[in-house]
Automatic annotation (TrEMBL):
Subcellular location: Membrane
Protein name (database record): GPI-anchored wall transfer protein
GO annotation, cellular component aspect: endoplasmic reticulum; membrane
Species assigned in the record: Rubroshorea leprosula
GO biological process, one term: GPI anchor biosynthetic process
Record keywords: Membrane, Transmembrane, Transmembrane helix
Length: 467
Protein backbone atom coordinates (compact mmCIF):
# COMPACT_ATOMS: atom_id res chain seq x y z
CA UNK A 1 0.00 0.00 0.00
CA UNK A 2 1.21 3.47 -0.88
CA UNK A 3 2.34 5.06 2.42
CA UNK A 4 1.39 8.52 1.13
CA UNK A 5 -2.20 7.56 0.34
CA UNK A 6 -4.81 8.63 2.87
CA UNK A 7 -6.16 5.59 4.69
CA UNK A 8 -9.88 4.87 4.54
CA UNK A 9 -9.53 3.41 8.02
CA UNK A 10 -7.28 5.74 10.07
CA UNK A 11 -7.95 3.93 13.36
CA UNK A 12 -7.11 0.52 11.94
CA UNK A 13 -4.43 -0.31 14.51
CA UNK A 14 -6.55 0.89 17.42
CA UNK A 15 -9.40 -1.32 16.24
CA UNK A 16 -7.07 -4.30 15.94
CA UNK A 17 -5.80 -3.73 19.48
CA UNK A 18 -9.40 -3.42 20.69
CA UNK A 19 -10.08 -7.07 19.78
CA UNK A 20 -6.66 -8.46 20.74
CA UNK A 21 -5.31 -10.21 23.85
CA UNK A 22 -8.74 -11.05 25.27
CA UNK A 23 -9.45 -13.92 27.66
CA UNK A 24 -13.20 -14.46 27.29
CA UNK A 25 -15.84 -15.47 29.79
CA UNK A 26 -16.93 -18.63 31.58
CA UNK A 27 -18.69 -21.49 29.81
CA UNK A 28 -21.56 -21.15 32.25
CA UNK A 29 -22.18 -17.51 31.42
CA UNK A 30 -22.07 -18.18 27.67
CA UNK A 31 -24.43 -21.13 28.06
CA UNK A 32 -26.84 -18.97 30.07
CA UNK A 33 -26.61 -16.14 27.54
CA UNK A 34 -27.29 -18.42 24.57
CA UNK A 35 -30.16 -20.09 26.39
CA UNK A 36 -32.04 -16.80 26.07
CA UNK A 37 -32.04 -17.15 22.27
CA UNK A 38 -34.20 -20.30 21.93
CA UNK A 39 -36.34 -19.12 24.84
CA UNK A 40 -37.08 -15.88 22.95
CA UNK A 41 -38.03 -17.93 19.88
CA UNK A 42 -40.34 -20.21 21.89
CA UNK A 43 -41.83 -17.21 23.69
CA UNK A 44 -42.64 -15.54 20.39
CA UNK A 45 -44.28 -18.75 19.20
CA UNK A 46 -46.26 -19.16 22.41
CA UNK A 47 -47.69 -15.64 22.51
CA UNK A 48 -48.14 -15.21 18.78
CA UNK A 49 -51.73 -15.04 17.60
CA UNK A 50 -50.78 -13.30 14.38
CA UNK A 51 -51.80 -15.30 11.33
CA UNK A 52 -50.74 -14.36 7.85
CA UNK A 53 -53.32 -15.47 5.33
CA UNK A 54 -53.18 -15.94 1.58
CA UNK A 55 -49.71 -17.42 1.60
CA UNK A 56 -48.31 -19.35 -1.30
CA UNK A 57 -45.73 -22.02 -0.55
CA UNK A 58 -42.63 -22.54 -2.61
CA UNK A 59 -40.94 -25.80 -1.63
CA UNK A 60 -37.20 -25.65 -1.09
CA UNK A 61 -34.86 -28.00 -2.88
CA UNK A 62 -34.03 -29.89 0.31
CA UNK A 63 -37.73 -30.41 1.08
CA UNK A 64 -37.44 -28.50 4.29
CA UNK A 65 -40.03 -26.00 5.36
CA UNK A 66 -41.69 -24.18 2.46
CA UNK A 67 -40.74 -20.66 1.57
CA UNK A 68 -43.82 -18.72 2.60
CA UNK A 69 -44.58 -15.74 0.40
CA UNK A 70 -47.84 -14.14 1.53
CA UNK A 71 -49.63 -12.03 -1.07
CA UNK A 72 -50.45 -9.49 1.63
CA UNK A 73 -47.16 -7.65 2.04
CA UNK A 74 -48.51 -5.43 4.82
CA UNK A 75 -49.44 -8.44 6.95
CA UNK A 76 -46.13 -10.11 6.14
CA UNK A 77 -44.08 -7.04 7.08
CA UNK A 78 -46.04 -6.62 10.32
CA UNK A 79 -45.32 -10.23 11.30
CA UNK A 80 -41.65 -9.79 10.39
CA UNK A 81 -41.40 -6.61 12.47
CA UNK A 82 -43.04 -8.28 15.47
CA UNK A 83 -40.56 -11.15 15.16
CA UNK A 84 -37.72 -8.63 15.09
CA UNK A 85 -38.99 -6.80 18.17
CA UNK A 86 -39.60 -10.06 20.04
CA UNK A 87 -36.34 -11.85 19.20
CA UNK A 88 -33.61 -9.81 17.52
CA UNK A 89 -33.94 -6.62 19.56
CA UNK A 90 -33.85 -8.43 22.95
CA UNK A 91 -30.85 -10.47 21.76
CA UNK A 92 -29.04 -7.27 20.87
CA UNK A 93 -29.80 -5.80 24.29
CA UNK A 94 -28.66 -8.96 26.11
CA UNK A 95 -25.39 -8.93 24.17
CA UNK A 96 -24.66 -5.28 24.97
CA UNK A 97 -26.29 -2.98 27.54
CA UNK A 98 -27.93 -5.77 29.58
CA UNK A 99 -24.90 -8.08 29.57
CA UNK A 100 -24.23 -7.71 33.30
CA UNK A 101 -27.58 -9.32 34.17
CA UNK A 102 -27.31 -12.43 32.01
CA UNK A 103 -28.30 -14.96 34.68
CA UNK A 104 -31.20 -12.85 35.91
CA UNK A 105 -32.68 -12.43 32.43
CA UNK A 106 -32.24 -16.11 31.61
CA UNK A 107 -34.15 -17.17 34.72
CA UNK A 108 -36.88 -14.57 34.21
CA UNK A 109 -37.38 -15.55 30.58
CA UNK A 110 -37.50 -19.24 31.47
CA UNK A 111 -40.25 -18.64 34.04
CA UNK A 112 -42.12 -16.41 31.60
CA UNK A 113 -41.97 -19.13 28.95
CA UNK A 114 -43.27 -21.76 31.37
CA UNK A 115 -46.14 -19.46 32.36
CA UNK A 116 -47.06 -18.66 28.74
CA UNK A 117 -46.92 -22.29 27.61
CA UNK A 118 -48.92 -23.50 30.61
CA UNK A 119 -51.55 -20.83 30.01
CA UNK A 120 -51.82 -21.62 26.32
CA UNK A 121 -51.98 -25.36 26.93
CA UNK A 122 -54.81 -24.89 29.40
CA UNK A 123 -56.69 -22.85 26.79
CA UNK A 124 -55.95 -25.32 23.99
CA UNK A 125 -57.24 -28.23 26.07
CA UNK A 126 -60.65 -26.59 26.19
CA UNK A 127 -60.60 -25.00 22.73
CA UNK A 128 -60.15 -27.17 19.62
CA UNK A 129 -59.53 -24.09 17.48
CA UNK A 130 -55.88 -23.79 18.53
CA UNK A 131 -53.61 -25.83 16.30
CA UNK A 132 -51.37 -28.40 17.87
CA UNK A 133 -49.44 -31.53 17.04
CA UNK A 134 -45.79 -32.37 16.57
CA UNK A 135 -43.64 -30.18 14.38
CA UNK A 136 -41.32 -31.91 11.90
CA UNK A 137 -37.81 -32.26 13.33
CA UNK A 138 -36.34 -30.35 10.38
CA UNK A 139 -38.31 -27.29 11.50
CA UNK A 140 -36.43 -27.29 14.80
CA UNK A 141 -33.13 -27.83 12.97
CA UNK A 142 -33.87 -24.83 10.77
CA UNK A 143 -34.75 -22.76 13.85
CA UNK A 144 -31.43 -23.76 15.43
CA UNK A 145 -29.41 -22.84 12.34
CA UNK A 146 -31.16 -19.47 12.09
CA UNK A 147 -30.58 -18.79 15.80
CA UNK A 148 -26.83 -19.35 15.47
CA UNK A 149 -26.71 -17.17 12.35
CA UNK A 150 -28.54 -14.37 14.15
CA UNK A 151 -26.01 -14.51 16.99
CA UNK A 152 -23.13 -14.36 14.50
CA UNK A 153 -24.59 -11.50 12.45
CA UNK A 154 -25.26 -9.38 15.53
CA UNK A 155 -21.85 -9.97 17.06
CA UNK A 156 -19.63 -9.26 14.05
CA UNK A 157 -20.60 -5.59 14.12
CA UNK A 158 -21.35 -5.20 17.83
CA UNK A 159 -17.80 -6.28 18.74
CA UNK A 160 -16.41 -3.09 17.18
CA UNK A 161 -18.32 -0.92 19.68
CA UNK A 162 -17.45 -0.41 23.33
CA UNK A 163 -20.96 -1.36 24.48
CA UNK A 164 -20.16 -4.95 23.48
CA UNK A 165 -18.39 -6.52 26.51
CA UNK A 166 -14.82 -7.58 25.79
CA UNK A 167 -15.52 -10.89 27.55
CA UNK A 168 -17.79 -11.84 24.63
CA UNK A 169 -15.18 -11.07 21.94
CA UNK A 170 -12.89 -13.75 20.53
CA UNK A 171 -10.15 -14.98 22.84
CA UNK A 172 -6.50 -14.62 21.89
CA UNK A 173 -5.18 -18.07 22.78
CA UNK A 174 -7.17 -20.13 25.29
CA UNK A 175 -10.59 -19.54 26.76
CA UNK A 176 -14.24 -19.34 25.76
CA UNK A 177 -16.38 -16.46 24.59
CA UNK A 178 -19.62 -15.87 22.73
CA UNK A 179 -17.85 -15.06 19.46
CA UNK A 180 -15.54 -18.06 19.74
CA UNK A 181 -18.56 -20.22 18.92
CA UNK A 182 -19.14 -18.53 15.55
CA UNK A 183 -17.11 -20.46 12.99
CA UNK A 184 -17.46 -23.76 14.87
CA UNK A 185 -21.24 -23.42 15.02
CA UNK A 186 -21.36 -22.59 11.31
CA UNK A 187 -19.37 -25.72 10.43
CA UNK A 188 -21.45 -27.92 12.74
CA UNK A 189 -24.81 -26.52 11.59
CA UNK A 190 -23.86 -27.24 7.98
CA UNK A 191 -22.63 -30.73 8.82
CA UNK A 192 -25.88 -31.78 10.50
CA UNK A 193 -27.90 -31.13 7.31
CA UNK A 194 -25.14 -31.91 4.79
CA UNK A 195 -25.37 -34.29 1.84
CA UNK A 196 -23.37 -36.82 3.83
CA UNK A 197 -25.69 -36.64 6.84
CA UNK A 198 -28.73 -37.03 4.58
CA UNK A 199 -26.97 -39.95 2.86
CA UNK A 200 -27.28 -38.29 -0.53
CA UNK A 201 -24.97 -39.58 -3.26
CA UNK A 202 -21.51 -38.17 -2.69
CA UNK A 203 -19.50 -36.04 -5.13
CA UNK A 204 -16.19 -36.97 -6.72
CA UNK A 205 -13.22 -34.73 -6.11
CA UNK A 206 -13.76 -32.73 -9.32
CA UNK A 207 -17.38 -31.98 -8.40
CA UNK A 208 -16.26 -31.18 -4.85
CA UNK A 209 -13.76 -28.58 -6.02
CA UNK A 210 -16.32 -27.11 -8.43
CA UNK A 211 -18.95 -26.85 -5.70
CA UNK A 212 -16.41 -25.26 -3.36
CA UNK A 213 -15.27 -22.64 -5.88
CA UNK A 214 -17.82 -20.03 -4.68
CA UNK A 215 -16.33 -20.23 -1.18
CA UNK A 216 -12.84 -19.76 -2.62
CA UNK A 217 -14.07 -16.78 -4.64
CA UNK A 218 -15.61 -15.29 -1.49
CA UNK A 219 -12.39 -15.95 0.42
CA UNK A 220 -10.19 -14.22 -2.14
CA UNK A 221 -12.79 -11.48 -2.52
CA UNK A 222 -12.64 -10.76 1.19
CA UNK A 223 -8.84 -10.82 1.12
CA UNK A 224 -8.65 -8.31 -1.73
CA UNK A 225 -11.38 -6.03 -0.39
CA UNK A 226 -9.94 -5.80 3.13
CA UNK A 227 -6.50 -5.00 1.74
CA UNK A 228 -7.80 -2.40 -0.71
CA UNK A 229 -9.62 -0.37 1.97
CA UNK A 230 -6.99 -0.97 4.67
CA UNK A 231 -9.57 -2.78 6.81
CA UNK A 232 -8.55 -4.04 10.25
CA UNK A 233 -7.49 -7.71 10.39
CA UNK A 234 -6.66 -9.58 13.59
CA UNK A 235 -3.76 -11.72 12.37
CA UNK A 236 -3.89 -14.02 15.41
CA UNK A 237 -7.35 -15.21 14.40
CA UNK A 238 -6.60 -17.05 11.12
CA UNK A 239 -3.29 -15.67 9.90
CA UNK A 240 -2.17 -12.96 7.50
CA UNK A 241 -4.24 -13.95 4.46
CA UNK A 242 -6.59 -16.67 5.69
CA UNK A 243 -10.25 -16.13 6.52
CA UNK A 244 -13.48 -17.90 7.41
CA UNK A 245 -14.35 -18.78 3.80
CA UNK A 246 -11.04 -20.55 3.20
CA UNK A 247 -11.68 -22.68 6.29
CA UNK A 248 -15.13 -23.66 5.01
CA UNK A 249 -13.69 -24.46 1.59
CA UNK A 250 -10.91 -26.58 3.09
CA UNK A 251 -13.35 -28.59 5.20
CA UNK A 252 -15.64 -29.09 2.20
CA UNK A 253 -12.83 -30.34 -0.04
CA UNK A 254 -11.41 -32.72 2.58
CA UNK A 255 -14.80 -34.20 3.46
CA UNK A 256 -15.54 -34.79 -0.23
CA UNK A 257 -12.19 -36.23 -1.27
CA UNK A 258 -11.93 -38.53 1.76
CA UNK A 259 -15.54 -39.66 1.74
CA UNK A 260 -16.87 -42.31 4.11
CA UNK A 261 -20.32 -43.64 4.90
CA UNK A 262 -22.18 -41.44 7.41
CA UNK A 263 -22.34 -44.52 9.63
CA UNK A 264 -18.58 -44.28 10.14
CA UNK A 265 -18.03 -40.53 9.88
CA UNK A 266 -18.03 -40.18 13.66
CA UNK A 267 -15.29 -42.79 13.95
CA UNK A 268 -13.13 -41.09 11.32
CA UNK A 269 -13.76 -37.70 12.91
CA UNK A 270 -12.71 -39.02 16.32
CA UNK A 271 -9.50 -40.49 14.89
CA UNK A 272 -8.65 -37.20 13.16
CA UNK A 273 -9.34 -35.17 16.30
CA UNK A 274 -7.35 -37.48 18.57
CA UNK A 275 -4.42 -37.47 16.14
CA UNK A 276 -4.54 -33.69 15.80
CA UNK A 277 -4.77 -33.22 19.58
CA UNK A 278 -1.77 -35.49 20.06
CA UNK A 279 0.15 -33.41 17.53
CA UNK A 280 -0.83 -30.21 19.34
CA UNK A 281 0.32 -31.51 22.72
CA UNK A 282 3.63 -32.62 21.24
CA UNK A 283 4.71 -29.13 20.25
CA UNK A 284 2.38 -27.90 17.53
CA UNK A 285 0.41 -25.77 20.02
CA UNK A 286 3.56 -23.87 21.00
CA UNK A 287 4.24 -23.08 17.34
CA UNK A 288 0.66 -22.02 16.59
CA UNK A 289 0.44 -19.71 19.60
CA UNK A 290 3.84 -18.11 19.08
CA UNK A 291 4.49 -14.91 17.14
CA UNK A 292 6.88 -16.80 14.86
CA UNK A 293 6.01 -16.42 11.19
CA UNK A 294 8.18 -17.29 8.23
CA UNK A 295 7.83 -15.98 4.70
CA UNK A 296 6.06 -19.03 3.27
CA UNK A 297 2.27 -19.12 2.87
CA UNK A 298 1.69 -21.87 5.44
CA UNK A 299 3.74 -20.16 8.15
CA UNK A 300 2.04 -16.81 7.57
CA UNK A 301 -1.36 -18.47 7.83
CA UNK A 302 -0.53 -21.23 10.31
CA UNK A 303 -3.64 -20.78 12.49
CA UNK A 304 -6.02 -21.13 9.57
CA UNK A 305 -4.15 -23.95 7.84
CA UNK A 306 -3.65 -26.26 10.83
CA UNK A 307 -7.02 -25.60 12.47
CA UNK A 308 -8.68 -27.15 9.41
CA UNK A 309 -7.92 -30.56 10.91
CA UNK A 310 -9.98 -29.67 13.97
CA UNK A 311 -12.86 -28.28 11.91
CA UNK A 312 -12.76 -31.31 9.61
CA UNK A 313 -13.07 -33.63 12.59
CA UNK A 314 -15.89 -31.48 13.98
CA UNK A 315 -17.67 -31.62 10.63
CA UNK A 316 -17.50 -35.42 10.54
CA UNK A 317 -18.92 -35.66 14.07
CA UNK A 318 -21.71 -33.33 12.97
CA UNK A 319 -22.45 -35.60 10.01
CA UNK A 320 -22.71 -38.53 12.41
CA UNK A 321 -25.10 -36.59 14.65
CA UNK A 322 -27.30 -35.57 11.73
CA UNK A 323 -27.39 -39.05 10.23
CA UNK A 324 -27.91 -40.97 13.47
CA UNK A 325 -30.53 -38.69 14.99
CA UNK A 326 -32.42 -37.20 12.08
CA UNK A 327 -31.80 -38.69 8.64
CA UNK A 328 -30.62 -42.28 9.07
CA UNK A 329 -34.05 -43.83 9.51
CA UNK A 330 -36.93 -41.50 8.74
CA UNK A 331 -39.64 -43.97 9.69
CA UNK A 332 -38.17 -44.43 13.16
CA UNK A 333 -37.89 -40.66 13.56
CA UNK A 334 -41.55 -40.13 12.77
CA UNK A 335 -42.50 -42.71 15.38
CA UNK A 336 -40.38 -41.28 18.17
CA UNK A 337 -39.94 -37.50 18.14
CA UNK A 338 -39.66 -37.45 21.94
CA UNK A 339 -36.94 -40.07 21.72
CA UNK A 340 -34.96 -37.84 19.38
CA UNK A 341 -35.30 -34.90 21.76
CA UNK A 342 -34.12 -37.05 24.67
CA UNK A 343 -31.13 -38.24 22.62
CA UNK A 344 -30.10 -34.67 21.81
CA UNK A 345 -30.28 -33.72 25.49
CA UNK A 346 -28.20 -36.74 26.48
CA UNK A 347 -25.62 -35.99 23.79
CA UNK A 348 -25.36 -32.40 24.98
CA UNK A 349 -24.79 -33.55 28.56
CA UNK A 350 -22.17 -36.05 27.34
CA UNK A 351 -20.22 -33.42 25.40
CA UNK A 352 -20.45 -30.94 28.30
CA UNK A 353 -18.97 -33.58 30.60
CA UNK A 354 -16.26 -34.43 28.06
CA UNK A 355 -15.38 -30.76 27.63
CA UNK A 356 -14.94 -30.24 31.37
CA UNK A 357 -12.80 -33.40 31.55
CA UNK A 358 -10.56 -32.28 28.68
CA UNK A 359 -10.21 -28.79 30.18
CA UNK A 360 -9.06 -30.21 33.49
CA UNK A 361 -6.80 -33.04 32.36
CA UNK A 362 -5.55 -32.23 28.83
CA UNK A 363 -5.75 -28.80 27.21
CA UNK A 364 -8.04 -25.83 27.65
CA UNK A 365 -10.46 -24.76 24.94
CA UNK A 366 -8.76 -22.90 22.08
CA UNK A 367 -10.69 -21.66 19.06
CA UNK A 368 -7.45 -20.39 17.54
CA UNK A 369 -6.17 -23.97 17.20
CA UNK A 370 -9.58 -25.69 17.08
CA UNK A 371 -8.37 -28.29 19.54
CA UNK A 372 -10.35 -31.23 20.88
CA UNK A 373 -11.79 -29.33 23.84
CA UNK A 374 -13.03 -26.59 21.50
CA UNK A 375 -14.76 -29.16 19.29
CA UNK A 376 -16.55 -30.83 22.20
CA UNK A 377 -17.54 -27.43 23.62
CA UNK A 378 -19.07 -26.35 20.31
CA UNK A 379 -20.96 -29.65 20.10
CA UNK A 380 -22.20 -29.34 23.68
CA UNK A 381 -23.38 -25.75 23.30
CA UNK A 382 -25.02 -26.25 19.92
CA UNK A 383 -26.79 -29.44 20.92
CA UNK A 384 -28.07 -27.67 24.04
CA UNK A 385 -29.56 -24.92 21.89
CA UNK A 386 -31.08 -27.48 19.51
CA UNK A 387 -32.49 -29.51 22.40
CA UNK A 388 -34.30 -26.46 23.79
CA UNK A 389 -35.79 -25.69 20.37
CA UNK A 390 -36.98 -29.29 20.05
CA UNK A 391 -39.21 -28.55 23.06
CA UNK A 392 -41.38 -26.51 20.69
CA UNK A 393 -43.72 -29.51 20.55
CA UNK A 394 -44.90 -28.48 24.00
CA UNK A 395 -45.92 -25.06 22.67
CA UNK A 396 -49.46 -25.40 21.28
CA UNK A 397 -49.80 -24.15 17.72
CA UNK A 398 -46.09 -23.37 17.36
CA UNK A 399 -44.95 -22.64 13.82
CA UNK A 400 -41.76 -21.53 12.17
CA UNK A 401 -41.72 -17.75 12.30
CA UNK A 402 -41.55 -15.40 9.31
CA UNK A 403 -38.17 -14.15 10.57
CA UNK A 404 -36.81 -17.70 10.71
CA UNK A 405 -38.05 -18.52 7.22
CA UNK A 406 -36.49 -15.35 5.82
CA UNK A 407 -33.05 -16.22 7.22
CA UNK A 408 -33.32 -19.97 6.64
CA UNK A 409 -33.86 -19.67 2.89
CA UNK A 410 -30.72 -17.56 2.43
CA UNK A 411 -28.40 -18.33 5.34
CA UNK A 412 -25.14 -17.66 3.52
CA UNK A 413 -26.58 -14.49 1.97
CA UNK A 414 -27.45 -13.24 5.45
CA UNK A 415 -23.85 -13.74 6.55
CA UNK A 416 -22.44 -12.08 3.43
CA UNK A 417 -24.76 -9.10 3.75
CA UNK A 418 -23.91 -8.79 7.45
CA UNK A 419 -20.21 -8.66 6.54
CA UNK A 420 -20.79 -6.00 3.88
CA UNK A 421 -22.88 -3.85 6.21
CA UNK A 422 -20.30 -4.29 8.98
CA UNK A 423 -17.57 -3.09 6.65
CA UNK A 424 -19.58 -0.08 5.53
CA UNK A 425 -20.33 0.93 9.12
CA UNK A 426 -16.68 0.61 10.14
CA UNK A 427 -15.51 2.73 7.22
CA UNK A 428 -18.09 5.45 7.81
CA UNK A 429 -18.33 5.55 11.62
CA UNK A 430 -15.63 5.77 14.27
CA UNK A 431 -16.94 2.77 16.20
CA UNK A 432 -14.36 3.02 18.98
CA UNK A 433 -15.52 6.44 20.08
CA UNK A 434 -19.26 6.15 19.46
CA UNK A 435 -21.43 6.91 22.49
CA UNK A 436 -23.48 4.03 23.96
CA UNK A 437 -26.70 5.53 22.57
CA UNK A 438 -25.21 6.05 19.11
CA UNK A 439 -23.73 2.56 19.10
CA UNK A 440 -27.01 0.93 20.11
CA UNK A 441 -28.94 2.95 17.53
CA UNK A 442 -26.54 1.94 14.76
CA UNK A 443 -26.77 -1.72 15.77
CA UNK A 444 -30.57 -1.65 15.79
CA UNK A 445 -30.70 -0.03 12.34
CA UNK A 446 -28.13 -2.53 11.05
CA UNK A 447 -30.05 -5.53 12.40
CA UNK A 448 -33.39 -4.25 11.10
CA UNK A 449 -31.90 -3.51 7.66
CA UNK A 450 -30.57 -7.06 7.48
CA UNK A 451 -33.93 -8.47 8.57
CA UNK A 452 -35.96 -6.39 6.11
CA UNK A 453 -33.72 -7.24 3.15
CA UNK A 454 -33.93 -10.97 3.82
CA UNK A 455 -37.65 -10.65 4.45
CA UNK A 456 -38.25 -8.96 1.10
CA UNK A 457 -36.36 -11.54 -0.95
CA UNK A 458 -38.13 -14.29 0.98
CA UNK A 459 -41.51 -12.62 0.29
CA UNK A 460 -40.85 -12.86 -3.43
CA UNK A 461 -39.60 -16.44 -3.17
CA UNK A 462 -36.02 -15.60 -4.13
CA UNK A 463 -33.39 -18.09 -3.03
CA UNK A 464 -29.74 -17.55 -3.90
CA UNK A 465 -27.82 -20.70 -4.68
CA UNK A 466 -24.03 -20.61 -4.57
CA UNK A 467 -23.41 -24.26 -5.38
Amino acid sequence: MDPHRTSLNPNKHLKEQFVSNLTGSSMLEIAALLTTVPILVLLRQSISSFHVSGARDTPSEKKDNPVVAPRNFSAYFTALTLDFLSIVLPMLLFFTVLAEWTYVWTILLAFLLIFCVASKRSISSSSPSIEGGLRPFNTSISSYRVAMMLVTCLCILAVDFRIFPRKYAKTETYGTSLMDLGVGSFVLANAIVSRQARNVSSMNWKMAIKSTSPLLVLGFGRLVSTASVDYQVHVGEYGVHWNFFFTLAGVSILSSIINVSPKYSGLLGSVILLGYQSWLMNGLNVYLLSNERGMDVISRNKEGVFSIFGYWGMYLLGVQVGYSLFFGNRSAIKRSKKGITTSVWLLSIFFWSLTLFLERHFERVSRRMCNLAYVTWVLAQNLQLLAILLLSDYVPGSKMLILEKAFDQNLLVSFLLANVLTGLVNLSVDTLFASPLSALSILIVYAFTLTVFLGIINFYGIRFKFW
